[in-house]
Amino acid sequence: MPDEVIITEHELPQDVISAIKSGRRIEAIKLLREAKDLGLANAQVLVDRAWRTHGPAKPIPSFADQPRGLTIIAKSLGMVLLVIAAYYFYTGS
After folding, report:
1. Stated pTM of the model
2. In terms of Cα–Cα distance, which of 65, 59, 7 is closest to 36?
């Protein structure tokens, strides 16, 4: 291993960037270590920095993803009945 290897995020090989874009973080670290002869910690730091700009976007939950219809009504009714049962249990009424 060379004495000192200086590499920036902009000098990453294309196969490392494509692995990051497809969400394969561990593979990206392995590819970077092999390509640039880096240690594990250095490769991990570089991949983490590149992940911020090139990594896959996290899906933002939307209102449309929420359950609808009878499922919400059944869950709400169940919670109300549970609260009423707990009230009668603890008050002894």
Report:
1. 0.56
2. 7
